[in-house]
Structures are given as structure tokens and as C-alpha cells.
Amino acid sequence: MRIIGPVLLVSLAVLAAGCGTPESEAAATRTTAGGTHVFLTVDFQEGQTLRYKFTSTKKIAIDWDPNAAAAANRVQEQVEDFEMIVAYTPVAVDPYGASTIRATVEVVQAVRSGGRASRNSADAVETAQGKSFTLQVDPRGRITEAAELTALIQEMGQRAFRTDTSAGRVKEPDMIWDFIASQWFLWDAVSTVERPAAGVAVGQTWSSRLSVPTPMVTRLARNVVYTLAEVRPGEAGPRVVIKSAYTLADAVPAGWPIPYSGRFQMSGTFGFLVSYEVQGLEGSGEELFDLQAGRVERRQEKYTVRMKAGLPPLGIQAHPQITIDQTLTMERQ
Predict the structure, then answer these.
(1) Which domains, from first to last, does the chain contain?
(2) What is the pLDDT of residues 4-35, one digit of tens each?
(3) Which residues does 256 contact at the CB level (< 8 Å), separation at least 6?
(4) Eight-class DSSP state of 64
(5) 3-state DSSP assignment of residue 304
(6) Of 327, 322, 249, which Cα lies nearest the Cα of 281?
(7) How do beta strands 2-4 and 37-39 pair?
(8) What is the pTM of this model?
(9) For 112, phi and psi rounded to 5 degrees?
(10) Three-state DSSP class for 38?
(11) CA–CA separation, 231 vs 29, rounded Å?
(12) Are 101 and 44 in contact (CB under 8 A)?
């Protein structure tokens, strides 16, 4: 990553992004009368492994009858926690094309607590532990090839179903969508800059879409507006602060992976409830990006989803309200 005055030629910006010489390091912190532009690229060094810890926490509250008078046990609370460590090792580095990165899931754990029927068996997402997949990543941070990642997601999806099919095809609760949210959008803030060759100025905004992991079977997306908030100088080199703001998207982009297919029933509370309707989503996040090393240092995303659900036709007139407070993090180890 480099900071370069906006009057420099684009070709010079590309060369600076791929080199680590003292001269280019000095030019990286230079500003001009036209302001400072940041050229965001994702950089790898062959043989140098980067290791990241990912977490996801959902705090879920179900108000079974919002219109009823206050009563004990009307609100059911539960928590889903996901934690994973992934090591990314460059296999072949091309600063002007696509680099090949081998990702290995070293540790993954999913835990649920609270609720009326906590699940004690292993989550299907934990079957990813010890598995590897290859990504093709261009200098912008766009994942240009992810067939092995898609295959791993679908493999986990198959493991989410009960082997006993006497009661039909039944899927257990899982946190595979949290895995997808952590791996499919690794460098989204950098890769979605509209005109990367022009650089990004402090205060500039751009947009994208991210996934919304939920405890029920539903595909949701959130609009995200990124803002380059500031460039922080430091002894180890400059860090870029990228802020993000989230709202509910009206559609899910084609091409995002889906872990399951066919007809099935989900077990547990979120299989019992029906007719989910999302009423709102809002939140914000922050990413700290190492400009010279070309890598994410840490990222946090926090948002709240509000939903309305229905009950099966049992003669009960109620419309449960569901609130999900979600926190997603990524941090270099």
C-alpha cells in the first residue's frame, strides 16, 4: 500500500504499490496542494503466512407476543458465538495479476447458549477445521476464483443435515453463514473502490453489499457505505481508517454461495417459526488497514436486525418480534 500525491502518473502509482524500496516508502507519505490520495492494494509476499482470527456473536431476543401485557418469560434470549483462525499462505505472487493464496482453517468453534432447547451436538461449521482451500486474489483484493471455497461451504452444508431421514430431510442449526461472511468478503472495503487508479481521498465514500448471517434459513444482504476516514502516521508506517455504515439491502447479489439446496425442514425454534419479515437493519463498522504492507490489521462490524415472524396455524394469534445484535470481527494474529 502506498500514499502518493494525486498528480503522479497512474503507472508510477502501480509500481509504488508493488515495491518496498526506501524511495517509494518516502513517497508514500507525501502530500500535495491537491490533497493526499491513498492507493489501496492488497499485497502478499511469497512464503509469508498471514494469520487472522475471526469472531461472530449474535445476541438474539425473541418477544413471543409484543402486544401482550408484560409477563414473565415472554422474551426468550439466546447467544450464538463463532470463532475461527485461518492461515493464508501465498503460493504464487503476481503484483500485477492474480496471486494464489492457500487458506487453512486451523481452529473453528461454534457455541450456543440460552434458548428453550440449546443444541449440544457439534455444529456443521466445525467440520471445516483442518481443511484448506485456494483463492485467486488480484492486487485490488478481488477474489477472482474461489471454487474450492465454494466446495467447502457446500460440504459443510451437507453435514448440517440429520443422517436419519425417517422424519424427512431435517437440517440442524449451524453457523455456516458466519463462515461465509468471514471468508467471502475478506477485502471488500479495498476491492470495491470504484476508481482505484485515481486513489481515494480522505472523506471519500464508495458502496458495496455484504451478507447478513442469521440463525434462520434466509438470505439477506446489507448495503454498506465505506468512508476513508483518516490516515494515521506511525513508526510502523501509515494506517488507513475505513468507516462503514449499514442499511438493509433489497436484494441479494447473484453469485454468493449457498450451502444447502432442495426442500427440508429446520429443527429448533427458527424452524418452528414461519413467515419471517425483516423490518429494519442499521449499524456501523471500522477497518484499520496497513497501507505499506497492504493488509487488514483489524476490522469490526456491528449492526442490529429487526424481524417479525409468524406462528404455525395452531389457533394462536401472535406475531413474535426478533431482534438480532450481530458483531463480526477480523484481527491479524
Answers:
(1) 2-332 (2.30.230)
(2) 333 222 332 333 344 343 443 433 333 434 46
(3) 180, 184, 211, 219, 221
(4) S
(5) strand
(6) 249
(7) antiparallel
(8) 0.89
(9) -120, 145
(10) strand
(11) 10
(12) yes
